[in-house]
Amino acid sequence: MQEKIDKYTAEIKAFAATKADELEAFRIKFLGTKGIIKDLFDQFKTVGPEEKRTFGKVLNQFKQLAEEKYSELKEASANTADTATADIDKTLPGDGFELGSRHPLTLVRNEIIDVFKRLGFVVAEGPEIEDDWHNFSALNFPEEHPARDMQDTFFIKKNSGTDDIALRTHTSSVQVRMMENGKPPFRAIMPGRVYRNEAISARAHCFFHQVEGLYVDENVSFADLKQTLYHFVQELYGEGTKVRFRPSYFPFTEPSAEMDVSCTICKGSGCNMCKYSGWVEILGCGMVDPNVLENCGIDSKKYTGFAFGMGIERITNLKYVIRDLRLFSENDVRFLKQFQSEII
Ligand code: 2NL
Question: Residues that bind Mg(2+), according to the entry (predicted)?
Fold first, then answer.
């Protein structure tokens, strides 16, 4: 018995497994229910009292040695691991993760919305697929108006003129729906995507984004329009930005105007953003044509209103000096990640 113990003690001391299956074989051989230690203890039961005294201690020490060896190797293998994880260099820095960023059009749209919200305007949205009435007829477009033409409008269904279904060409259709379904006063802005059947280039796209605004109440005047839009420009481009109004024409407003701001890049001294004029056009506006109010069921003798519309792309180009409209829809991350990241 002593001989066996000596032999196994040497074997245990020399054992240095690194693989999990070798370690498991060790456990089964020495510590298993049919293992060597169990066997030795069984033999121990049969020896005389004299031998029991000497072997009792030796056997317990032997058992302890085997158990200690096993737990020591088990712990070591858990730390270094014996499989593929052994190849991982834990001193390397972890993978970073990048935050996304807001699309520049979203940033500018939100800025525009915020200014008007502070003035008490609400935000309204509507469908991108519209019927002729909401996109054209209610807005005083004559039957033969060129804007209805196939070249400008994406028609989904050509029925009989007034029954046509098309992608909306402006968000004015949302204002028509609002006026038809409610009662004045109205004070709302309508952001959204609109579509025009145009060839894509640096300066034109088949879709773009608009914010339109509408204010209808008793005694609303052109002075209210001018003051509201002047305030908007001070908020958006900073105090001291100049504005000027030029007469214009839209079927749905009378009188109509276009509004320019002093060039935000060169402050009016002349640069290629403003084509050396010192002024940049940013929106169209006017007093809502009485015909439009009547078409929407509003008494044009009692109520007047102003409306305006602007392209978000144009405002964004001016703010960030972007010269190619295609950048907005190509989703090139090198372009997108230059804008404010999302802060959660
Ligand atoms: C532009 C010009 C404009 C409007 C939009 C409007 C809507 C209703 C009644 C009257 Cl329901 N007007 N909207 C008015 C003037 C100009 O947009 O250049 N947009 C990009």
Answer: 254
